[in-house]
Amino acid sequence: MDEISKSLFSNGFIGEYRDPNGTFDMENAILSVFGKKLSPNELADLISAPSGCETEVFLEKSKCINQLDIVCVNAVHPETGLLLNRQFYSHNGYRLVFHNGFMRGDHVKGTGIRVLAREVRNYRQRGFRLISTKAGRNPDQQGNWRAEAPHVQEIGFWFWLSLGFRADFETPLLEKVQSEYSYATNSHDLFELDGGLEWWKQNGESVFAQFDLSPKSHHSQIFAKQLQSKLVDIEL
Q: I want to staple 42 with a disulfide (CB 3.0 to 4.6 A). Which of 26, 38, 59, 131 is the partner?
């Protein structure tokens, strides 16, 4: 994960400093992050919110990096429960987005990969460099549910990684992985090895991961192959 995201996430910027009174300058924040003014409807289109979703746009500030503007776009479908939660920010000339939540609800199978495909296309058009996410596992390997999300199943720890997101393994997770696959230092390495993905489905855990939006990146090449194999006809 890039150093900007590490610093932000380690200081818990998500949701910690939301504008309570509408005093933040949303218009200039959107201009700063995206390079142009965008309406709430355009932001909903950017995150590929399916028809019927209700969208909320608000601004947060980072306490750890010079009051960094974070434009937050949430979309929820009132009938199916589909939830998209995205944070957009720009720092040192780079545009980045954090995927803070994706819950499929009762939407049909394949919703996740189709939403991501459209987001990748849209982010590239807006000049974004990276997507970061917390690829969660819930319950954990022992069957324990997280206290803040009891019985909310999360499979992102293998699903998003299988679509090209890369998690760099750090100790003690690195030692756990290398006890079985000695040359694997990240999820890309692991999944290219025989049985790596299946081993991770059984033994993996929640990890931070990133997706390099460059069309020539290994992340994008993996994703393009997955789209082709699953017959998803969405041009990136």
A: 38
Nearest to 105 by CA among 135, 87, 124, 82: 82
C-alpha span between 88 and 90 (Å, rounded): 7
Site of tokens 């009891």: 150
pTM across the whole model: 0.88
Model pLDDT for residues 192-223, shown as the tens digit of each residue: 999 999 999 999 999 999 999 999 999 999 99
Strand-pairing partners, residue 57, are: 73
Six token digits for residue 56? 């909320």
Give the model confidence (pLDDT) of 137-160 as tens digits: 887 888 888 777 777 778 889 999
Separate counts of helices (H) and strands (E) for the chain:
9, 6
Least confident span in 15-29, 78-92, 109-123: 15-29
164 Rama class: left (phi>0) / alpha (psi -120 to 50) / beta: left
| Contact call for residues 213 and 131 (beta carbons, < 8 A) | yes
Name the strands in the sheet holding 207-212, side by side, starting at the edge strand that comes first in the sequence. Answer: 54-61, 69-76, 83-91, 94-103, 130-135, 207-212
